[in-house]
Automatic annotation (TrEMBL):
Keyword Lyase annotated: yes
Superkingdom of source: Bacteria
SUPFAM superfamilies: IpsF-like, Nucleotide-diphospho-sugar transferases
A GO term for molecular function: 2-C-methyl-D-erythritol 4-phosphate cytidylyltransferase activity
Similarity comment: family membership: Belongs to the IspF family. In the N-terminal section; belongs to the IspD/TarI cytidylyltransferase family. IspD subfamily.
Site features described as Transition state stabilizer, chain residue numbers: 18, 28, 270, 369
Domain 2-C-methyl-D-erythritol 2,4-cyclodiphosphate synthase: 238-390
InterPro entries on file: IspD, IspD/F, IspD/TarI, MECDP_synthase, MECDP_synthase_CS, MECDP_synthase_sf, Nucleotide-diphossugar_trans
Location of the region described as 2-C-methyl-D-erythritol 2,4-cyclodiphosphate synthase in the Swiss-Prot/TrEMBL record: 238-396
EC number(s) from the headed UniProt entry: 2.7.7.60, 4.6.1.12
Organism: Devosia neptuniae
Keyword annotations: Isoprene biosynthesis, Lyase, Metal-binding, Multifunctional enzyme, Nucleotidyltransferase, Transferase
Binding site for 4-CDP-2-C-methyl-D-erythritol 2-phosphate: 244-246, 270-271, 292-294, 368-371, 375, 378
Gene: ispDF
Protein name per UniProt: Bifunctional enzyme IspD/IspF
Amino acid sequence: MRQKSIAVIIVAAGQGERASAGGAPDPKQYRNVAGVPVLQRTIQAFLDHPAIGQILPVVHAGHAERYAALGLSDNRLLAPVLGGGTRQASVLEGIKALAPLRPDLVLIQDAARPFATTDLIGDVIAVLDQYDGALPALGVTDTIKRSLDGRLVVATEDRNQLHAAQTPQGFRFGQIFSAHMRASTIRRQFTDDAEIAEWAGLKVAMVMGDPNNIKITHPQDFERAERIVSGDFAMETRVGTGFDVHPFEAGDAVWLGGVRIPYRAKLKGHSDADVALHALTDAILGAIGEGDIGVHFPPADMQWKGAASTIFLKHAGDLVTGLGGRIVNLDVTIVCEGPRIAQHVPAMQAVIAETLGIATNRIAIKATTSEKLGFTGREEGIVAMASASVEVPRGD
């Protein structure tokens, strides 16, 4: 069975006047929440969903430079189109632009809702197997009063029948295209796309919304958005340690910290036997609970014979990045009588920094001797110890 193609329209053509009260220089979709522009967060939420095929931003005619300044790049992200004078008109421009691609489904998302989760997006998509349209919604908990003049109460609504709509709202593309085209021929303005679908006679179902899927509308909403980021995506620090030892064998150089150092012997091992990078890799893996280097690169696997240990280190770093984390600092101690290490430390730091994509000032490399004691003192091999501090999203 052919997988349905799914496109997303991000409606970002508004001026955001209410959220800009108080003199904010940028429209709300270009203002930062925890250092990241709102529109960028919104787009990334859909880039993170594997079922999404294309994402089309609809932007204001005067915001082209602001959008370009975001520097977003992904092969699923289409060039933005210009919106119309109303949200309804902007959505229609987006639908028209998608028409040549003929997606099966389309999701329509407000740019000012940056916290749509992968699960929420998936729930909306799933409902479209049975219904013409779908939207996330939350039941109303407050008592709702009706007033004709904004002052005198004339009725109390049954809140059990009331729900607050969110986006993304999803539809079968051909149906919502037809509904929007028909709606554009009348003077009535609709509040959202689900209302247009209802007016056109389409069956629209609700899925459970998310309280954090807020729409940034007023200045105080930015404060709530900051709290959502710091609360739901707060980072925690984890620490791991690594230890490795390799004996010498006949040779003319050793690999330490990714640097080839001429010496009267080399280190014995299945890979390049870089004892420093092995300890460092284990420290990073330990910090994120991913076992040790042997689990990921078994010594019995011949593809790793003679392999550069930077491969192992990069893999560990990629695992941290994949968790949404970052490496805070690394500390390596090398214990040997020889070779001399100090002059090679800057080169080692540079290799490790490039491999992991971090700054050299986050990497400490130290060398010491064992005062002629033990196997290192007898110059039979080298020991390395390492520690790694990483930040990852806080778990349960």
